[in-house]
Known about the structure:
The chain is α+β, with helices and mostly antiparallel strands. The chain folds into 2 domains: about 5-300, 3-Layer(aba) Sandwich (Beta-lactamase); about 305-400, D-Ala-D-Ala carboxypeptidase, C-terminal domain (Peptidoglycan synthesis regulatory factor (PBP3), Domain 2), CATH 2.60.410. It is about 30% helix and about 25% strand. It has 9 helices and 18 strands. The chain has helices at about 5-20, 85-100, 115, 135-140, 145-155, 160-175, 195-210, 280-295, 390-400; strands spanning about 5, 60-65, 70-75, 110, 130, 220-225, 225-230, 240-250, 255-265, 265-275, 295-300, 310-315, 320-325, 330-335, 340-345, 350, 360-365, 370-380. The strands form 5 sheets. It has a 6-stranded mixed β-sheet with strand order 15-17-18-13-12-16. Strand 2 (about 60-65) and strand 3 (about 70-75) form a beta hairpin. The longest helix has 18 residues, at about 280-295. The chain is globular. The relative contact order is 0.15. Residues about 5-40 have low confidence and may be disordered.
Amino acid sequence: MPIRIPFFIFDRCKAFVARSMRSILFIATSVIAGGLLSLHPLSNADAAVPAPPQVDARAWYLMDANSGQMLVQSHADEKHAPASLTKMLTSYVVFAEMARGKFNLETQVPVSWNARRMTGSRMFLEADTLVSVEALLKGLIIQSGNDAAVALAEFISGDEKSFAVLMNRHAARLGMTRSHFTNASGLSETDQYSTARDTAFLASALVRDFPDYYPWHAIREYEYGGIVQPNRNPLLGLDPSVDGLKTGYTDAALFCLVASAEREGMRLVVSVLGAKSNADRRRFAKALLDYGFEFYETRLLYSAGQELVDARIWKGESDKVPLGIKEDLHITLPRGEHGRIGVKTDLVRISAPVKADEIQGLIRISHQENIVAERPLIALQDIARGNLWQVAKDQILLLIQ
């Protein structure tokens, strides 16, 4: 019979181990300002939306995963130790490398003594054995195995420090501008830190980029080596709309939780860093998710490839070129406010020839004088240069304009 280990034992064991390592833990406290151009915060003062719930944590961030828009936040760009939230990036890198065809779920990974000796949460790997990538990923995601993180890092990059270089490369590409990673497991080190905003971005990227594997985050328990361990996410089962993602705890980080939930097609991601207890992080994350779903709404405004503008093109075989956007555009606003948006387009003077996907302008979406989204307008089809008559006619029209 498999050994079934209760959840509360893991929390107490992890807290004990973390306290015993207090002398080597550090908290990164620098603050860097900035953000992504196309992600515009919403102001709950702009509409009849009540203030968010009171959250007693170091930092938190609530966003819509589809629009990328922030709903509410507090100290979202302060650097903190990320603890096992780090494993979200570890799994992202593994999924990305697998998508490149470097290996597959059935690939067997050797387990080193270095991985075997890892402390904290583990999937209890044995050294000098071979374990499949799938088993290690599930041990990483569901059981939060530090040993699984190291085994995967060593398999992909040779050692954990080299793997951290790959982690930081992906983090930069995902817009995690205030994060830096030095290991794959999340054990506290001086130069390993992240933010509430960045961890929410990362969670959204996992949902968006790897939909085939994201459901693993909702698996309630996993058995390996005859030992059944529960998923650490305290919201699974408590809220049926929650289907991920990750918890973390060290003495430096305190109790952290990144959770994602979907209700009626709207997906929110919340990151809570530095809560004082497991119960607190669960309660605060749930309250923020409920707040977001109650008072905000996300709608698909335009689809990728949809013609938005029939623009004038000069010197072409046609005098019109359809313009649109490359990806779906979702807009998140307070409920009842979607009828009050404004749309403005800025176009360059377009001359043939034009290739599909070339940027020809910009579309801006505003709400109550605030720009909530900006996207490049691209040509949706090729337009070749016209014949001599078409070119000469348009040249004359341009001269007399």
